[in-house]
Every structure is written in C-alpha cells, then in structure tokens.
Design brief:
Two copies of one chain form a homodimer. In chain A, strands 3-2-4 form a three-stranded antiparallel sheet. In chain A, strands 6-7-8 form a three-stranded parallel sheet, sandwiched between helices. A three-stranded antiparallel sheet of chain A has the order 9-10-11, with helices on one face. Chain A is elongated. Chain A is an alpha/beta fold. Chain A has two domains: 6-206 and 325-394, Crotonobetainyl-coa:carnitine coa-transferase, domain 1 (Rossmann fold, 3-Layer(aba) Sandwich), CATH 3.40.50; 228-237 and 242-313, 2-Layer Sandwich (formyl-coa transferase, domain 3), CATH 3.30.1540. Chain A is built from 17 helices and 14 strands. In chain A, strand 9 (233-237) and strand 10 (242-246) form a beta hairpin. At the A-B interface, helix 2, helix 6, helix 7, strand 8 and helix 8 of A face helix 2, helix 6, helix 7, strand 8 and helix 8 of B. Strand 14 of chain A pairs antiparallel with strand 8 (192-197) of chain B, so a sheet runs across the interface. Chains A, B: InterPro entries: CoA-transferase_III_domain, CoA-Trfase_fam_III, CoA-Trfase_III_dom3_sf, CoA-Trfase_III_dom_1_sf. Chains A, B: Keywords: Transferase. Chains A, B: It comes from Sphingomonas sanxanigenens DSM 19645 = NX02. Chains A, B: One of its GO terms (molecular function) is CoA-transferase activity. Chains A, B: This is Carnitine dehydratase.
C-alpha cells in the first residue's frame, strides 16, 4: 500500500530480492507516480500521455516486477479483502501519512489480527508516532535534516540534493528493518511493526560526521569542492570539465607534483609535509587548478593515475548509468514498456548487491492498468469466485 | 575486518540490530579512522592526541558496541586464527581493496572452508570482480556516479556532497544483502558471498531519476534550489536563512498566495493554473523570493503552515541532530568516551528503525586500544589458553 517514491522503492528492493510483491492501489486514481511526466508507450517517450496504455516512466521504473490490485480502502468491505491479503502475505508496507492506515482499518492492528506472523512496515515523514501533520516531501525532509548545509561553499546558500535522498534512504532502512524482523520471526514465530521515518533516516546519515566536534575544534565543516584540512583533496576544474583527486598522504602528494610536471614542489617548504600542505592549502589549490585548467579531464586523470594518485572525472548521470562495470553488475538496468519494448532506450536502478548463490532481478510483470492482476490475486490466490469479483467491482471496492 | 567508514558502518548497523561484532585490526596500526582528528579523552575534545587513551571521535562513533581483537593477517598462522573466528561466527565483513582478502588467505574461500554456513560480505569501490586498482575514496566514487551533477544550478560547477554518501550507502546495501543471505540460509543451511560496490550502490540511487527520458523530453534535469517544472517548489531565501516549500497543486498554490498576503495572485492569468505557474515560473519565484526575503524563516514557515502549505526551515546539522523528534526516536544519540563520559557533549548516528518487538542500540563496549578484547575473544570464545596467547603476541600475530 505504497505511493510516490519512498514506499514503492522499499517494495521494489524486496521484489528485486525475490519477494512476490502485490501493489494495492485505489481504483479511483491509483499511485500519483502514474501521473509523472514523461511517459513511454507506443509513440516512445512523450511529455504528455496520448494513449491509455502509455505509462509514466516513474511508474514503469518503480512498479516493475510487481503485480497490481485495486482496492478502495474507504469502501465498506475493503478491510475484509485487506485481511485476506494479509493471511496470504509475509510483509505489508505502507507509506500513508502517519495515522492514516489505522484510521482506514488497515493498520498493524488489523494486519496482526489476520496474521500474527505478519511483518508490517510503516514509512512516514516523521515516524508513526508523530502527530498528524503536513505531507513529508523529499525537499522538506532535506531541509530539516541539515543535509542542505553540508554541501557547497561555507558562505553559499544551502544545496538541495538532486537525488531524492530523503525519499530513497528511508526505504533502504525499511528493508533492513523488515529483513531483521523476518530473522526474529524465525525465533519467535511472531511478526511485528517496523516504523521508519524519512527525517530520522536522513538525519542519521548527516550525524555520522562529527559536526559539533569539528566546530568545537575550530575546524570548518562545510567546505565546498575541496577539503582544506585534507589538502590536496577534492574537485578541480579542467579545460572541459572537472577532476576529483585525493593526495592526502606523502606519497600521493609527491605523485601529484610529478603529474603536474612540478616535482620541485616536494621541496617547497609550503608543500613539503602534510601539515605544511594543510596550512598552505589555498596556495596549493591555486597551483593545482592552474595546472588542471589547461588540460582535458581525461588527460588530467591519465597523468594522475600514472603516478598512482586516486583520480576520476566528474561524470554526468547519463554517462555514469552506462558505465560498463555498473551495467555488467546490473546496478543499473534497462527497462521497457512491456507492450512496446523497442520504443525507447531507458535505464534505471538495479539492485546493487551481488550474491554468489542467488540472483537479483525483476519479473516482466507490470501493473499497466490499476487492478491489472485482480483476477490472479483475488481469484487465484485468495480464491474469490468470478461472481464475487464482479460484485466487488460493481460496488467500487476493487 | 573493516577500516575507514564503509565497512565499519556496515558492522555498526549490525551491532545496533543486536549482532555481536568483533573488530579485527592489525596490531601494527589498526583502523586509520583512529587517526582522524578531532579526539576526545580526559581533556575533552582536542585537535591533537595528547594521551594514550584519547580516541578519535570517528573511532568512538564507528566502533561503539564492538569488541576488538588484533590480528596481523600477514603473520604466519594468522589464517588459522581467522578460520577459528569463522567457526564461531555467522557473518564476515571486509572492505579491503578487491582481491586483497583472498591474497591474504582470509577471503570467502578460506571462510567457507572453516564454516560453510558463513555469510561473507565484501565491500569495495567497484566490486569484488574489478581488476585491482586505486583506492576508492568517497569523493572519487561521488565523481564517477553522476551524483555531483544532480545538484546545483544548471551551469554551475559540480557539487561535492558534504555527507560521505558513497561511503555510507554501500554498507546499507551490504546489510540488506547479509540479512537476505541469512534468510536464504534458513532454507539451504549454506552461507554465501555478498559483493557490494560503492560505485554501484550510489549509481543505482542516481539512476532512480529518469535522466535520459528527461533529456529526451526536453526537461532540464539539474535545476538548483527550485524545480521549475513543479513550480512553486524548492528553497527560497528569508531575512535570516532559507525556507523550503512545496505548493505544486492548486489548493497549495492558493494557500501560498494567501500566506504571501497576495490572494489576488490566484486570479492573475500567469499564476491561475498549474500549467500557467510552470510556464511563468521565473516570475512566480521572483515574487515568492521578494516576499520571503523580508521575513524571518520561522515567520515564513508559520504563515505557510497556517495555510496548509508544506514548509520547513533549512536547518544546520547541529540543529537537526538535536531535533526532539529525532532524539526521542534515537535516530541520533549521545556518545561518550567510556572512561571520561562527562568530558564532551557528542552526538552521532543511531539506527533509524523502530521495532515494536525489539530495541536497537549499542553495548557500552569500545576497543579503546587495538586488541582490547583479545582475552575475551581468543581466550573465552575460541578457548586459546594463556600460554598460546602470549606466544601469539610475542610472534606479532596478535
């Protein structure tokens, strides 16, 4: 029972690990991600939906490998269907606003009543115990988490991260919680409620750096493209892009000076030791930038790597997603509209885990329409007969 | 067998979920994170280490709840100790450069020989199958993943994320892989090798956005503090800081105009519909900024929330880490030097998952010195007698 990104990404990860996932959607509209432009379908990628079976690329990416049923949770009798689903399930995931699932009669209490072994995971902005408040969008959580003031120059505005990190981090922790609860269930036979907050997940990541201690020690925390207390460390401009390099230790610094064609810098008292390099970081960074700005990025990387200095080009997402290493490991993967597979060349997230004795991946299944798999799930799995399905549809329950 | 951040964060999460974690360190130096300034000890927080039992705050944060043994993997006989540890363990985690663990005789093959049920997880920059290359630092992986070109303004330099996201994301997926392998082990009785790449984990996050499709549809991907295709959406300057707000839908946009004291904007043809607001995003954002810049952030948030518009102040990390909601849920938590608990007020990451039938958290244990718990682990757990321990120490094995 998930919508948007946080919840669907949690169940996507579970699907990729081998779970059979059933996506439950309101027959009156379904997951709002279905309305995210751009779409893909018989005409390829389009900004607007032109045909009934065009699907949002967001939906295609997030719902792949899942079966889909329709269920209007506000309709009389919906709770019965929900509990029947729970009796045939191991895990429930929902990301309604805190309190909503309980109010609709599909909270943990209802699930447990149907199946005491159920593992029930709630994903919300501020936690299941938060007083009901506004919706928790990614940008709101990024703002509250402190993350926006960890990037960028010390005096610059905050930085909104272009990856929806708050939406994606909470579900990763949700999956950890779910798998940990399954492990506990092997010992107790009982399920439990897992409660993950977007704000908590992202703040816990921010908290791994010792912000207060850095401040207490007089060390700047927010340092932009380079980190002067580790100088030379960071990102430098090239003729056609940017290069990232790390030369914190003595041997690497000497390698950098060699790569720069300036081995004599090793004897310059300003740069001859780690402490000196940190103390003269501004002058050192200026020298590096004056060198790197004259070179294509690939040439700078080549020269640095030849000296054993860790270095990399700063790549754009399109290039990163098609890195041969990443494609070979299925950390990114092709997706296609099941009916028009050759109409577009699309690539999305894979499961970034390799198992020696198992494979990750997704079935070809996709709920193109809401309730696409009602017959398979309500009919074949729950055993509802055709007459009952017809009546439920007529009553607007499914 | 983990060092720096990626590996230790994986085992920290496992410790927080209840695992008994044994940190294996080289007696000749140990985890380099022990050398990260600042330190904490009898004199409080200091930039330099003054006393033998001062500990790096990085080490304090990452090694809490773990026992520590010393083991020189290059010493003759070390493999015997490693295999004895494996016979008493469920999980091994290592983050050496790819290929190193095998070369040292402590790779998956050696672990499985000792214990076929062992789940063995390798964390590396580019995957266990990568040809041996340079070290994979966080900034190098950020550069390669495309993440640096997702934040910031369209024509601005790339943005280095201040959170070590590459170092932290791979271990979260490692824990998912480990727990999934434990689930599989309940069915097969066998362990397996888990292989997680820093580049793959971060690239898979970047890949959730449909970069190629956005480009194909002519939509800008990198949009800085606001997203004009969702206008009004993003971060706006206030008199004393910044506010994040989301007013994509009709009702929210009207609420925003009310909050701005300009309800007539709802009738302005430039702003009267969602399509119009997107088409006139530049003018709309200028009007919002002209309003927000006159107000303290708290006042802007108050006015927006009163109209039901999702809004939040952009907070600094220190403020975010002490959010009462986050502290109450132990998503951040206090840490202290075990011997000098009152000398500093430090706060770090908790486990951002709440269980109804279990608690997360950390024992008071900390390997202050390398090999702190040799007697408990090699003696009590493995049953080595005092004479043997003495000899191993004398030979430099432990």
């Amino acid at each position: 029972m998930t919508r948007a990104l946080a919840g669907p990404y949690a169940t996507l990860l579970l699907a990729g690990l081998g779970a059979e996932v059933i996506k439950v959607e309101d027959p009156r509209g379904g997951d709002l991600a279905r309305e995210n432009s751009p779409y893909v379908g018989r005409d390829g990628v389009t900004v607007e939906r032109a045909h009934a079976d065009d699907v949002s690329i967001s939906h295609l990416s997030r719902a792949r490998g899942k079966q889909g049923v329709s269920l209007n949770l506000k309709a009389p009798g919906a709770q019965q269907l929900f509990q029947d689903l729970c009796r045939n399930a191991d895990i429930v995931v929902e990301n309604f606003t805190a309190g909503t699932a309980d109010r609709l009669g599909v909270g943990y209490a209802a699930a447990r009543e149907a199946n005491p072994a159920i593992v029930y995971c709630s994903l919300s902005g501020f936690g299941a115990d938060a007083p009901e408040g506004g919706k928790a969008m990614d940008v709101i959580i990024q703002a509250l988490s402190g993350a926006m003031y960890t990037s960028g120059d010390p005096d610059a505005p905050p930085v909104r991260m272009g990856i929806p990190i708050a939406d994606m981090l909470a579900p990763v922790f949700a999956v950890i919680g779910i798998l940990a609860a399954l492990e506990q269930r092997h010992r107790t036979g009982q399920g439990q409620h897992i409660d993950v907050s977007m704000l908590g997940a992202l703040t816990s990541f921010v908290a791994i750096e010792n912000w207060a201690a850095l401040a207490a020690a007089g060390m700047p925390a927010r340092t932009g493209l380079t980190v002067q207390r580790l100088s030379p460390f960071g990102v430098f401009e090239c003729a056609d892009g940017y290069v990232a390099l790390v030369a914190v230790h003595e041997k690497l610094a000497r390698g950098l000076f060699q790569a720069m064609g300036a081995p004599e810098m090793s004897d310059d008292p300003r740069f001859a030791s780690r402490d000196a390099r940190v103390a003269n970081a501004v002058a050192l960074e200026a020298k590096i930038a004056a060198w790197s700005r004259t070179l294509p990025t690939a040439e700078a990387v080549r020269l640095l790597e030849a000296q054993g200095v860790p270095a990399a080009p700063v790549r754009h997402p399109e290039e990163a997603l098609t890195d041969p290493r990443v494609m070979a490991r299925v950390e990114t993967m092709a997706i296609a509209h099941p009916r028009y597979p050759h109409q577009a060349d699309l690539r999305t997230s894979g499961i970034p885990i390799r198992f020696s004795e198992a494979r990750t991946g997704f079935d070809e299944t996709l709920p193109i329409a809401i309730g696409e798999h009602n017959r398979q799930i309500y009919g074949d799995l729950l055993g509802y007969d055709a007459a009952r399905l017809e009546q439920l549809a007529k009553q607007g329950v499914i």
